[in-house]
Design a protein that fits this description.
Number of strands: 11
Order of helices and strands: HHHHEEHHEHHEHEEEHEEHHEE
Mean pLDDT: 83
Radius of gyration: 25 Å
Helix content: 40-55%
Keywords: Membrane, Transmembrane, Transmembrane helix
Structural class: alpha+beta
Distance between the termini: 44 Å
């Protein structure tokens, strides 16, 4: 919390003193050199307006209902030397401009699994940054809980019979389970992702088949689990059209405090022309189950709790919000 203390000191003492110093200097300059002082004031005013304008733009951008859509478009931008007509035509055909190739469904699956993990990491960052609010609109000290509980992270555990037996044999309570995972991480048998800037996350191409993702927030008693063997499937546009009626598009999220802000997709464009909606990621996972439930349940029964479908761009990046929810 050192940075917070420094920020408070700066705002409380340094900035007011600096402002007074600037006023004194400008006043002295104005008395000694009236004409240069006028230009100095005009320049300072212009700089101030630019800074304020940029800040307002950033706030508006982050609060925009199209924030996640704009972020997704940024991940597969139009090259400068390509016409809009060619850009849209290749987008509709499934071309990824960023990587300069067409991806197969199998290749997209690896990309989408990494992007889905990135979405979990994005959610965790709100806890690390103390951006979670209670019903009264007050920010909660969630970073302390993340540190104390070793939470707010995603675990990726390649599975085999010996490893499953190890986890089950080391489980009498949730603390034993997390200690078991720490042992696996220590021996490079599992990975822990905290931030999108973590080198092990950046370098991981997710080109494995048999693994589980465990999403742990600030409460060590509950977790969400994704089994790579049966959690996630890539649909092309034709396959998605056959089951689309079973899902409803959700613009706001009641399932998490992070994605409650309304998020939209522009309605006056063909999203396929922007390289989105040619492929979809269907996800079935166990949400907020206890550690004993996870260990005790049969795998075939565990991963059937929640169903979501995410729009993908042609490079395999997930649109964080909105997404489709299964009609129960």
């Amino acid at each position: 919390m050192l940075w917070l203390f420094i920020a408070i000191i700066t705002l409380t003492f340094v900035l007011p003193l600096l402002s007074v110093w600037i006023v004194v200097k400008v006043t002295a300059l104005a008395k000694a050199h009236p004409k240069p002082a006028k230009y100095t004031l005009i320049t300072m005013f212009i700089i101030l307006m630019v800074v304020v304008g940029l800040k307002i733009r950033d706030i508006y951008y982050e609060k925009s209902p199209y924030y996640f859509w704009n972020e997704l478009i940024r991940k597969n931008p139009k090259p400068f030397n390509v016409s809009q007509k060619e850009f849209e035509a290749k987008n509709r055909a499934g071309y990824c401009w960023r990587d300069r190739k067409y991806y197969s469904k199998e290749e997209l699956w690896y990309k989408a699994m990494k992007s889905l993990t990135g979405r979990m990491i994005y959610e965790n960052k709100f806890y690390w940054d103390n951006k979670i609010v209670n019903d009264n609109g007050e920010f909660l000290p969630t970073e302390d809980e993340c540190v104390r509980q070793k939470g707010c992270r995603v675990f990726k555990i390649p599975m085999n019979p010996d490893k499953e037996k190890f986890l089950k044999d080391n489980i009498e309570n949730e603390n034993d389970f997390w200690k078991g995972i720490d042992v696996l991480i220590k021996h490079n048998e599992a990975q822990s992702f905290i931030f999108a800037s973590d080198q092990n996350y950046i370098n991981d191409d997710f080109k494995l088949k048999n693994y589980i993702l465990i999403h742990k927030l600030d409460d060590p008693a509950y977790l969400s689990v994704y089994d790579s063997n049966n959690c996630c499937t890539i649909f092309n546009k034709s396959e998605w059209s056959l089951i689309r009626k079973n899902y409803i598009l959700k613009y706001t999220g009641i399932d998490t405090v992070v994605f409650r802000q309304e998020s939209k997709i522009p309605i006056d464009i063909n999203i396929n022309s922007w390289g989105v909606g040619n492929f979809y990621l269907s996800v079935t996972y166990s949400k907020s189950i206890s550690v004993p439930e996870f260990v005790a349940k049969d795998k075939s029964e565990t991963f059937k709790d929640s169903r979501r479908v995410y729009l993908l761009n042609n490079c395999g990046d997930v649109l964080y919000r909105p997404n489709y929810w299964w009609r129960r």
